[in-house]
């Protein structure tokens, strides 16, 4: 049960209207955008709104709506995490229960398997934390960025992912306000996705261009392409294609979160005459040099 807040306590929510770091009943999370004690924040803001303190009709304040959407997103994220962690935890428990500690071969085999599962869980937790941080206002730090240097840098880093024929498709010789580290992260995530769906030696292209008032950066592979049944949900969390290598299906949702933070988008090109898939990062040019 969420208790009713006094007028004095509810007034602590007032700084939210101007985005200042509040004190008292509104925890430091609102300023830090880290962990959210949802009932405390919602109750305090609703109390202030309900008394007309924020200048909006009761329960019609945009801050309340924003908080409710953020809490719902966090709950979905936690539900997804719990669901996906259940399988590797079951694997760990099952193998430990039947382990014969007197058999060196069994111990060695089980140790290798469990370490692999722990590594998978670690990557899952890291990816989920990244998705959670994507809603923080400081997730991206914009700076004037040379798109050509960004493209070439991503290509050089991608060469270390796997034995593929890495190709530079094109480069845009311009500058744009972006977070170069986050965009490089998105491109490498797309490159890793291309590696998962191609064979050794297959061609994978990376490029950039200015097109229709936007900067586009892309990763193109020559694999089997994306099945039509998945094209509508490919950027949702935990969406996986048939035959995908070990992974939780979070990579493309991370890319989508990075692009949303840039007020841009990631798109999958329509099927073409050749096989493979091309994913594009599309960003409004906003003041190119």
Write structural notes for this entry.
This protein has 289 residues and is an alpha+beta fold. The protein has two domains: 1-139, no CATH class; 143-284, 2-Layer Sandwich (Heat Shock Protein 90), CATH 3.30.565. It contains eight helices and seven strands. The chain has helices at 7-10, 29-32, 38-50, 62-98, 104-133, 147-158, 180-196, 251-261; strands at 143-146, 165-168, 175-178, 203-211, 214-221, 265-268, 278-284. A five-stranded mixed beta sheet has the order 2-4-5-7-6. Helix 4 (62-98) packs antiparallel against helix 5. The longest helix is centred in the N-terminal third of the chain and has 37 residues, at 62-98. The model is unreliable at 1-5 and 9-36 (pLDDT under 50).
Summarize the structure.
This protein has 289 residues and is an alpha+beta fold. Helix content is 44%, strand content 14%. The protein folds into 2 domains: 1-139, no CATH class; 143-284, Histidine kinase-like ATPase, C-terminal domain (Heat Shock Protein 90).
- Radius of gyration using CA atoms only: 23 Å
Mean pLDDT: 76
Strand order of the largest sheet: 2-4-5-7-6
SSE pattern: HHHHHEHEEHEEHEE
By DSSP, the count of extended strands is 7
Task: Tell me the name of the CATH homologous superfamily of the largest domain.
Answer: Histidine kinase-like ATPase, C-terminal domain
So what's the overall shape? globular
Strand content: 5-15%
Helical stretch count? 8
How many strands, what sense, and barrel or not for the largest sheet?
A: 5 strands, mixed
CATH topology call of the largest domain:
Heat Shock Protein 90
CATH-defined architecture of the largest domain: 2-Layer Sandwich
- CATH C-level label of the largest domain: Alpha Beta
- Would you identify the regions where 5 or more consecutive residues have pLDDT less than 50? 1-5, 9-36
Helix content: 40-55%
Q: How many domains, as an integer?
A: 2
Q: What is the structural class?
A: alpha+beta
- The CA-CA distance between the termini, in Å, is 56 Å
